[in-house]
Each structure stands twice: as structure tokens, then as C-alpha cells.
């Protein structure tokens, strides 16, 4: 079975990096993987999303209209992608900047307050890794031991000294994820 995931937000939030870490982690675990980024020409502040498919079966196409799991990091993405979660699927969100919270009752909904928590610990740059930690706490599609390896493959060498901080943020993310609604 494959898990089809969409992660969506603004450029600069680490959306594409989260997808890349997931993809590398799954690949190192021997799973079938697809990573397909999409972003506007504005980069920082523009829209960005990434499709990640991870599983045991061959992946036929990365082009999808609906997803098993959607991670939403801004209101524009909530407006555009809340309905893209398949019935019975999962929606994860960080409420920072989101005015209209998800309201569907046919999907599981989880809140990961990563923006607030990363500000509290004094490093907002690890917000996306906290989101990843919360996601994998509820959706264990890759073993957590491969996340550190995924960070080494995804981050430039000059940032490797920050991997211990990122792993700490990943662990924190797993502890702050809140269940809003489950089906």
C-alpha cells in the first residue's frame, strides 16, 4: 500500500525540504518513493507544495487530485487543499495564520502548533521539522531512525552542524501533535 501525501504552504516554510526528507528517508528504508515539488516563481512568500508518495508498491504517476494525507501550513493552502483529502484520510495543520480551521467530519484532523513551539524555544527555523515529527507520530510511514539520514542527504553540508537541533525539534513535534477529530 502506498501513502500519497501533499504538503502545502508558503515558500520559505521548508515545505519542499520536508518532502525531500520524507522521500530520502523512505528510499533509505527500501520503499518505493516519489517526490514532486511545485512552487510559484516568487519563491519566499509565494505558494509551494510537494507531493510525496511512499510505499511498498510501484508508483504509477505522481500527478494526483486527491491524497491520503495533506499537511497545510497557511490559509491559502487550507482553502485550496482541504477538499483534496480523501474521505477517511488525514489532515495536519499549523494554526498560525489560519483563520478558517478545517471542518470536515469524514477525515481525521490533527493540529501541530509548531510555529508557537519553535518561537518558544527560540528557533523558528526548525518549525518545519517539528511539523514532520508530528506527522510521523500519527502516520508512521517511515522509521524515525531514517529521518536523521534524510536530513544529512537533504541539507547542504554547511548545515550539518544543525542536525542535532533538527532532531530535537523532530522529537518535540511528536509530543505536541493534537488530535482534533478522528474517523
Structure description:
This protein has 183 residues and is α/β, with parallel strands linked by helices. The chain has a single domain (2-181), classed as Pyruvate-ferredoxin Oxidoreductase, domain 3 (3-Layer(aba) Sandwich), CATH 3.40.920.10. It has 6 helices and 7 strands, in the order E-H-E-E-E-H-E-E-H-H-H-H-E. It has helices spanning 15-28, 75-81, 114-120, 127-138, 145-154, 163-176, and strands spanning 2-10, 32-39, 47-55, 67-72, 85-93, 108-111, 178-181. A 7-stranded mixed sheet has the order 2-3-1-4-5-6-7, sandwiched between helices. A hairpin with a 7-residue loop joins strand 2 (32-39) and strand 3 (47-55). Helix 1 (15-28) packs across helix 5 and helix 4 (127-138) packs across helix 6.
Q: What brief labels describe this structure?
A:
single chain; 183 residues; alpha/beta; Pyruvate-ferredoxin Oxidoreductase, domain 3; seven-stranded mixed β-sheet; 6 helices; 7 strands
What portion of residues is helical? 25-40%
Rg, Cα atoms, Å: 15 Å
Q: Can you tell me the overall shape?
A: globular
Strand content: 25-35%
Assign the CATH topology. Answer: Pyruvate-ferredoxin Oxidoreductase, domain 3
What would CATH call the class?
A: Alpha Beta
Amino acid at each position: 500500500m502506498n501513502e500519497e501525501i501533499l504538503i502545502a504552504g508558503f515558500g520559505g516554510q521548508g515545505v519542499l525540504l520536508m518532502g525531500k526528507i520524507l522521500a530520502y528517508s523512505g528510499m533509505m528504508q527500501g520503499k518505493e518513493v516519489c517526490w514532486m515539488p511545485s512552487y510559484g516563481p516568487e519563491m519566499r512568500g509565494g505558494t509551494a507544495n510537494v507531493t510525496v508518495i511512499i510505499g511498498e508498491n510501484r508508483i504509477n504517476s505522481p500527478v494526483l487530485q486527491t491524497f491520503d494525507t495533506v499537511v497545510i501550513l497557511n490559509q491559502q493552502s487550507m482553502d485550496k487543499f482541504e477538499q483534496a483529502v480523501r474521505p477517511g484520510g488525514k489532515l495536519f495543520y499549523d494554526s498560525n495564520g489560519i483563520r478558517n480551521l478545517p471542518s470536515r467530519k469524514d477525515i481525521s484532523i490533527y493540529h501541530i502548533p509548531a510555529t508557537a513551539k519553535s518561537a518558544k524555544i527560540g528557533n523558528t527555523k526548525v518549525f518545519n521539522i517539528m511539523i514532520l515529527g508530528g506527522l510521523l507520530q500519527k502516520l508512521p510511514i517511515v522509521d524515525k531512525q531514517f529521518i536523521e539520514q534524510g536530513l544529512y542527504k537533504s541539507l547542504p553540508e554547511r548545515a550539518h552542524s544543525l542536525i542535532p537541533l533538527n532532531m530535537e525539534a523532530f522529537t518535540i513535534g511528536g509530543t505536541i501533535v493534537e488530535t482534533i477529530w478522528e474517523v
